[in-house]
Design goal:
23 strands, alpha/beta, four-stranded antiparallel β-sheet, about 20% strand, Rossmann fold, Immunoglobulin-like, seven-stranded parallel β-sheet
């Protein structure tokens, strides 16, 4: 597959690119012996935000977090006619560029080098290459309007948000604030000037950018594709288009060379994912996929789509283990001979995303699972048929691809995690899947189906209450937290019998000051909130009872 995950290709040559490709090699290192870094001092190589994310999810800092030994890099760098392109600490390997076979022999002779593997060579294609990412976008005709109860006027993006009840999260105020999303793609041409990005630019919510293909910080060129995907999440033009997480913060990284296809791009992606992790990203969204390459000697087979073979899948699995949520486009080969997902859609611990239209009908192009080792892929689906994006000319246009389904869903996952930050990445993904409309009957086209974020919110809220109740009950049947309380308190109840329970609060004279009821089920602790409003400072007696059991607790109001 000529990578990527847009549907309709046109001929397009990127200015400034060269038809020739300098060979690149991955140098796999034996160890990290002698490194000056230590897992006990993570602040030397991880941001405070990255450390906090690990601590929140009880994820330890381990050896693969340590940077590659600088002495090893110095030795490689000292070899003439060799350029270090990038370095992966997770995979403990270095990507170099050289045309000198003698130089490669010198590197292979180093005692710390395990193996070398070529990942880019001259492509066996004509010089007039087809751009594998460009899509024939369509101008929108009319506006598919839609407004949330709190005033968000979605314009053309209404259908792609409301199919997931994402407006429910937005109306509750969850629009991605405080969540850091890494978009790894092929370039973000004109994001500095197009209207969809006014808010994110003006509010300084683009925290880092880097181009791992050209090794520079600017990503405002090279390709429109990343810009399209970015707009699906962050657009904020009321009445025209609102994205799925318009208030989130972002990292923008280019790993994909839009003209060529080689495994070197997989290495670029892993290094971009590492930078995302180190910066403290919560979510990585990737609308890229790899199966076959310009030079067929590098081609993957379907057997490689097992989550542990490709460079990208190995890196993605490690990324997921760091407590980030990864969303990967399933691919656009569903109606082509390849048929199946590509990599990193096969990655362990990630959500692979198929494409549907706003009515829930699967896109004919959306790639099929399972993974080669039989796992459910894709897991979920989102709108990737006639999805609205920021167009290059400033208008909003529609296009097709699992590329577009993926960021749409990524933004809504960000809003959900914002609402429940105490849950782990694995747990958030679990509830996204559980909320999907085919959860009990998944298939290999749309996975578990289309997530319902109102349902996911409700289930997470219930689970949050259950966990809180179990914690404060500490083996008992009733607890009030906090006690004493100033503004409000929660009553946790673990019944012996199922039924309707009456909750009464009496002052010291015996006067009934508060009364409510709650239906409880054995094995499912319940939570009831009470407010201070109307209650004077003092001592109260709480009585919780039904026909079979009764509990009494002293409550102090400050």
């Amino acid at each position: 597959m000529r990578n990527f995950i847009l549907l309709i290709f046109v001929t397009f040559i990127i200015p400034g690119t060269s038809a020739a490709q300098t060979p690149q090699y991955l140098i796999k290192l034996r160890d990290k012996n002698g490194t000056p870094y230590s897992v006990n001092k993570p602040g030397e190589f991880l941001s405070p935000r990255a450390i906090e994310r690990r601590a929140r999810q009880q994820i330890p800092v381990v050896e693969n977090d340590l940077p590659v030994n600088p002495a090893y890099l110095d030795s490689i760098r000292s070899v003439e006619n060799v350029t270090i392109r990038n370095v992966s600490k997770w995979l403990n390997q270095v990507c170099i560029e050289t045309t000198d076979a003698t130089a490669l022999d010198k590197i292979n002779a180093f005692t710390f080098v395990l193996t070398s593997q070529q990942v880019r060579r001259q492509a066996l294609l004509p010089l007039e290459l087809k751009n594998k990412l460009e899509i024939d976008l369509k101008e929108s005709v009319g506006m598919r309007g839609g407004r949330g109860v709190n005033g968000l006027d979605y314009g053309v993006s209404s259908g792609q948000i409301t199919i997931h009840k994402g407006n429910f999260l937005h109306d509750k105020g969850y629009r991605g604030q405080g969540v850091l999303i890494s978009v790894i793609d092929a370039g973000f041409t004109s994001y500095k000037s197009l209207p969809a990005f006014d808010s994110v630019r003006n509010q300084g919510r683009i925290l880092d950018t880097y181009d791992f293909v050209a090794n520079k910080t600017d990503v405002n060129d090279a390709h429109n594709h990343g810009m399209y995907c970015f707009s699906i999440i962050v657009a904020n033009v009321p009445g025209q288009m609102i994205g799925s997480a318009p208030n989130a913060s972002f990292l923008l990284y280019r790993s994909e060379d839009g003209t060529y296809e080689s495994p070197a791009e997989e290495q670029n992606w892993v290094v971009a994912a590492e930078r995302s992790d180190s910066a403290g990203a919560d979510i990585i969204t990737t609308s890229l996929g790899y199966t076959t390459f310009d030079n067929p000697v590098f081609n993957h087979t379907y057997a490689d789509m097992d989550g542990k073979t490709t460079i990208m899948a190995k890196g993605a699995a490690i990324a997921a283990s760091k407590g980030m949520i990864l969303l990967n486009a399933a691919g656009n080969d569903g109606n082509k001979p390849w048929h199946y997902i590509g990599t990193p859609a096969d990655a362990l611990g990630s959500l692979s995303v198929g494409a549907v239209d706003v009515n829930g009908n699967p896109g004919v192009f959306s790639s099929y699972g399972p993974s080669a080792d039989g796992r459910q892929k894709p897991e979920v689906s989102s709108v990737g048929v006639a999805t609205f994006v920021q167009g290059p000319s400033g208008t909003f246009v529609s296009g097709n691809g699992t590329s577009f389904a993926t960021p749409n869903l990524a933004g809504l996952v960000a809003c959900l995690w914002q609402a429940f930050p105490e849950f782990s990445s694995v747990e958030i993904m679990e509830y996204v899947i559980k909320s999907s409309n085919h959860f009990t009957n998944p298939d290999y086209k749309t996975g578990y189906g289309i997530p319902d974020f109102e349902l996911a919110f409700t289930m997470l809220e219930k689970e949050k209450g259950r966990r809180f109740a179990e914690k404060v009950l500490n083996g008992g049947n009733i607890a009030v937290y906090p006690n004493p309380f100033i503004n409000s308190a929660q009553i946790a109840i673990k019944p012996v019998n199922s039924g309707e329970f009456r909750i009464n609060l009496y002052d010291f004279t015996g006067k009934l000051c508060y009364s409510s009821s709650v239906a409880l089920i054995v094995g499912e602790p319940g939570i009831v909130s009470i407010q201070k409003a109307g209650l004077a400072r003092g001592v109260y007696i709480l009585k919780v009872q039904n026909g079979q059991e009764k509990y009494v607790q002293k409550v102090l109001v400050h």
